[in-house]
Amino acid sequence: MFENLPKAKVGIVAVSRDCFPESLSVNRRKALAKAYEEKYGKDDIYECPVCIVESEIHMVQALEDVKKAGCNALVVYLGNFGPEISETLLAKHFDGPAMFVAAAEESGDNLIGGRGDAYCGMLNAS
After folding, report:
1. Residue 86: its pLDDT value, please?
2. Residue 20 belongs to what domain range?
3. How far apart, in Å, are the Cα atoms of 81 and each of 51, 61, 68, 123?
4. Do residues 10 and 44 lie in contact, with contact meaning Cβ atoms separated by under 8 Å?
5. Domain holding 65: CATH number?
6. Could you state, in chain order, the average pLDDT of each consecutive group of 10 residues for the chain (126 residues)?
7. Angle at which helices 84-93 and 56-68 cross, to 10°
8. In this structure, is residue 5 part of a structural domain?
């Protein structure tokens, strides 16, 4: 049977702000990737180990990493309030479709003052 569907390999890049612990975004990215892999497998998803924190240097490192991994689609994952300039530059320079996704505020138990501000970061990214 003929399938007219593109084969996508999605790279997930977490972003963070230096006013939040980077581990918040990293742990949320890991949980997202794990949930996806448990349901769909690992073949079409790549978890970028570079977390972009306030720096265009991190952006370039993440961009090179997802390209090297063969990703042809990108998810910029706001685990908390992200660095607007670096995260939008990543999407701009990525040669393929890109989308921004914000983490839901779960229980608040692992957040600073009960807040992660991913939704606020999404508003700033737009």
Report:
1. 92
2. 10-125
3. 13, 20, 27, 10
4. yes
5. 3.40.50.1070
6. 84 89 88 94 95 91 98 93 89 96 71 63 72
7. 30
8. no
Residue 2 domain flag: no
The token pair at 92 is 């701009």
Q: What is the CA radius of gyration of the chain?
A: 14
Number of structural domains (the chain) is: 1
Bridge partners of 112, per DSSP, are: 115
DSSP 1-45: ---------EEEEEEE-TTS-HHHHHHHHHHHHHHHHHHH-STTE
pLDDT, residue 121, reads 72
pTM over 0.70: yes
